[in-house]
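Figure-free illustration: sequence to structure, shown twice.
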Amino acid sequence: MRGMTRGMTRGMAAAARGALALGAVVTLTVSVATSAAGHEERPGSRAPGSAAQNAVLAWNAYAGSAAIAACIAPVDNPLTESRAYAMTQIAVHDALNSIQRRFAPYLYDGRAPRWASPEAAVAAAAHDVLVPTLLAVPAPFPASCGPAGAASVEASYTAALAAIPDSPAKTAGIATGRAAAAAVLASRSGDGSDTPLAVPGFPQGTTPGAWRFTPDRPFAFGPGWGTVTPFVVDDAAQFLPGPPPALTSRQYTRDFAEVKALGGNGTTTPSARTADQTQVALFWLESSPLMWNAIARTIAADRGLDLWQSARLFGVLDAALADGYITSFTTKYHYLFWRPVTAIREAATDGNPRTVADPTWTPLATTPAIPDYESAHAVEGATAAAVLRGILGTDRVAFSACSLTLPAGSTCTDAGAVRRSFSRLSQAAAENGESRVLIGFHFRTAVEKGLELGTAVGDLAVQRLMRPAR
């Protein structure tokens, strides 16, 4: 890993300051450029001028920048990040639909004057959710993280309101946005999201197959996140899959051999990965909520979605992504299955003569401090693809994307940004899932089950949330 990280950026993004505590990939450093308005610049990630013309897309991007400033992105804490986005986009959606009812509200069923400013409503709704939510970023993040995120939002809010002429329409729009935000904040008070994130006293397993702390991560991350109140599913265990394969099964043996061969760091541990596979592994290392919201912005801009259509797309998407983590962490801590790095190093104890131990096996990046089964990253990709497919009515959506977690010179903020192109949503979700095997984080079965769970969550969200008004 040391050989690889020498080619990566040396300047850490603000988000990486919390990485040591929360299991992010601290050896992978990223740099994120921000504009004067505070929004993340992802060159080519959206149609020229689209974010400026569509307040929903603009504020979705501002939320991502604020999450980075608050140290919960681009790799550090997708749990808190996904919840913040979901609450924000729900408030934005409900504020707009108070002005003109085009979709069923998620929560706030207000009636604003039809002449109220939609742009002001969007800005106020997003601002009023994001500021208190980011200020409440939990320990062990540095105390400066939350205020930095809130300051990013304030800068975006000031600029957004300055661009709207003072008028009764602006005043009414602000009032509408604030009312929708207040309803969302009240509904999520006491939702369980204050559960400890880094738990060093979590009981470790000792038997073969049982999860225990992974190297350099002496704690469990988010073991109580499955108790957070969901946004759309009836119960966090609604789509609980069956158990992982037995350690002596052929399926486990195949999974073991695959991740052992492909997932090594390529320096101290040999790897059969191709150069393109290594790029895939690092490309998708970026936080799923950050990446898939950026992808959705590109698609929304390309398709010319208006404010209301965009608000519905992001409202459903982010509510579903938040529930993807809630359901996935329920599965993870229900089965508590060991990670490949533990399994490969301790294979001599697993009772399977076809698995061969490598006591020094090291993955491409540091394994997160959560159990293997199933892959939350795969869940998120499949959830996003299912939502976008359901709302757009087709899987055939061509787009390209960049990443903030590639080596220096290749990220979204670089002139030579690497872009990966896709012709289908399912193609991107599959590659996203595949990346977790290639990086050495998950067994194949964990990825496959994650794709199944994510698709179920995404499909349910499209069926239930923010349906077109009659």
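We now fold a second protein in the same way, so the two outputs can be compared directly.
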Amino acid sequence: MTTTHATPAEATAYEDDTGSGWVDFAALMLAIAGVMRFFDALWAFRYHGQLPDNLENALFGHSLKTYGWIYLGVTVVLLASAWLLSARRSQVARWVGVAAGAIAAITSIWLIQYYPVWGLIYVGLGALVVYALVVHGKRPARS
């Protein structure tokens, strides 16, 4: 009885499939975080209810409109980096993604005392994106 062994499929973009999966995960998480930040910005622009008592002591003052503009800018950065990672798969896209993941985590800390669960989720997602791109975002394989 003879056994035949299937030859492994060639990796298309990266040296190992695990790294490519992590890069895809990072791109997807950046896109989701960008959409979430967009809704945060909309909420900040449209909210007219009572604000927390100590919001005036927050980093950027008491105006939710200020946070809306900041979150809109973060939205652009997150969505652009997700697109770069998906479309380009270059080292520049990788490091832009690392910066965007760090920005996503840092901007969630501003209001963590008001929304601790969402803040911790944002920090965790940002940390996973940075991990994925730093550890698994290797240079593309040469053909």
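Summary for the second example: Helices lie at 17-46, 64-87, 91-109, 116-136.
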